[in-house]
Amino acid sequence: MSYNSWMFYSSKMVDxxxxxxxxxxxxxxxxxxxxxxxxxxxxxxxLNYRKLVMEGVSALLKQFPVFACKFCPEVxxxxxxxxxxxxxxxxxxxxxxxxxxxxGGLDDVLVPVEIFHLQHMHRDVIKHHQRFVFERVPAVVELxxxxxxxxxxxxxxxxxxNVEDSCGDVNGVxxxxxxxLRSIANGTLRAWEKHRNGVQKLLLVYPAKxxxxxxxxxxxxxxxxxxxxxxxxxxxxxxxxxWEKAEVDxxxxxxxxxxxxxxxxxxxxxxxxxxxxHTPLVVNLCLHAGAIAxxxxxxxxxxxxxxxxxxxxx
Length: 314
What we know:
The longest helix is centred in the middle third of the chain and has 26 residues, at 178-203. Helix 2 runs antiparallel to helix 6. Helix content is 30%, strand content 13%. A hairpin with a 5-residue loop joins strand 8 (208-211) and strand 9. It is globular, with a radius of gyration of 23 Å. The strands form five sheets. Strands 4-3-5 form a three-stranded antiparallel beta sheet. By secondary structure, the chain is α+β, with helices and mostly antiparallel strands. Pfam families: APO_RNA-bind.
């Protein structure tokens, strides 16, 4: 046996191949305890809240215009796009340019995060040549499936992201009353918060990984070995991911956007952008429909702060 397959601890030698087999055996035995029965109701609730969020956002997009930048992920909710020069351009080749706005849709508000669908939680690590064998499904649905829920085909392959009525075109749509809009917004915001809280509970029990150099996510005890990382300029990495523990924002991205307060100008200007505030995009859309922001977002919004430097007369 070669020297590389041995490791010295104090005065003892450890066979690394034998140690690896012991670890794999322990993981296989642990898989018998999954899915945990107590987490199945949580997984089912997460799926239900996910549907409510998608339905609510789709309904609000028909009433309020949402603009998405043609060349970067920036999104803005309002009658007009903003003039803040934060566009990084296509492939980030330029910086600090003006956004080019187009009508946004559901995918711009609820960012789709897709991962490999596993037949069972503790299977062998996916190799690079197997990357086309496994289907790609929404990350939250895969997490709920591993937690014991029974997602439908619409959950695994949502068609709502591609249908025409989910786009942000408000022309020709019958307007809703303020009371109806407020009801939809409050229900959507409540479902959004419960959806994220449910995902947080599942992540405390079921392992998930995220690459620290890109947005790739994997639900399972190990990350996959498909070389899909976007940091290709480092030849030694060869596109391999560097996995770390995933958080809720990795599976359910909040997408922070600019928030226009009553004291701000109709079109946010670039020279005063340090004084403008932000909100998560779903919260921003619900606020436009009359919902009340939860207290935890007040620090981000700073409703009472200034919109530009105060001129003091001497």
